[in-house]
Design a protein that fits this description.
There is one protein chain. With 245 residues, the protein is α+β, with helices and mostly antiparallel strands. Helix content is 29%, strand content 34%. The strands form two sheets. Strands 3, 4, 5, 6, 7, 8, 9 and 10 form an eight-stranded antiparallel sheet that branches. A three-stranded antiparallel sheet has the order 1-2-11, covered by helices on one side. 29% of the residues are buried.
Length: 245
């Protein structure tokens, strides 16, 4: 994955400034989250036109409106990076999204954060698979789940993709990794989601690559000019693939 885009954003904590870096697969186009309303609108339209170059103006407008409606909630949720891909897999269209967010680490201290999250997430999401994983950046919690969303009129901007609707419900498969940060005050969460069940293996391998590449460095340390982790962690990839089924 060497040479692919990285996502950098300083930690806002004044007492422990921290840079977060991870490698984003090149197929994922960045969704604008920061900037003025005008800047976000312009960047969003440019991105949609690039990703959906082969689709009609009506389709591009529908996608832009859908994404624009999500941006305020992403900002409120502490999203620091959002990306989406729309690719052909074996001759059919497929899509997925990757987001990264920061939130306060609450209810626990840093040394016990992973065990705390394991218990809390297992109780709050009993249908999900919740496990601990070891990453180069530290011990983290992985969650694999399915999210059902009712589609009122039976149509979405996903029309034309291999996305099954069952009784007007869209099921999106999600994998998250929650990593307590060494500043001991924040939690970094990365998430991959896709409504395309045929492509679990493909996207799980990409996501394993992303979480493997997470690199954290405090501001007073030398800047790393090259990604430190640019290969797939096969053990993590196999865990994720096995959980996806």
């Amino acid at each position: 994955m060497s040479g692919t885009p990285t996502a950098d954003r300083p930690d806002p904590a004044e007492d422990a400034p921290l840079q977060i870096r991870f490698i984003v697969p090149p197929a994922f186009h960045q969704v604008p989250v920061f900037g003025t309303e005008q800047q976000v609108a312009e960047e969003l339209w440019e991105m949609v036109c690039e990703v959906l170059a082969a689709r009609s103006e009506e389709d591009r407008a529908a996608w832009a409106m859908m994404l624009a409606g999500l941006i305020p909630s992403m900002a409120e949720a502490g999203v620091i990076h959002a990306g989406m891909c729309l690719v052909d897999v074996d001759g059919r269209p497929s899509m997925a999204t990757i987001t990264a967010s920061l939130c306060p680490l609450e209810g626990t201290d840093y040394p016990g954060a992973v065990d705390f999250l394991l218990t809390r997430l297992a109780l709050s999401r009993p249908e999900a698979e919740v496990t601990a994983v070891e990453l180069p950046a530290g011990r983290a919690v992985a969650v694999i789940d399915a999210v059902a969303t009712a589609v009122d009129d039976g149509s979405t901007p996903l029309d034309g993709l291999a996305v099954p609707l069952v009784d007007g419900v869209l099921t999106t498969s999600v994998i998250q990794v929650h990593l307590p940060l060494p500043n001991e005050s924040q939690l970094l969460s990365l998430e991959l989601s896709t409504p395309c069940p045929e492509d679990w293996v493909l996207y799980s391998e990409l996501f394993a690559d992303v979480v493997r590449s997470i690199h954290l460095e405090f501001a007073d340390l030398p800047t790393v000019s090259e990604p430190m982790y640019d290969t797939v962690d096969e053990e993590v990839a196999q865990r994720v693939k096995a959980a996806f089924g």
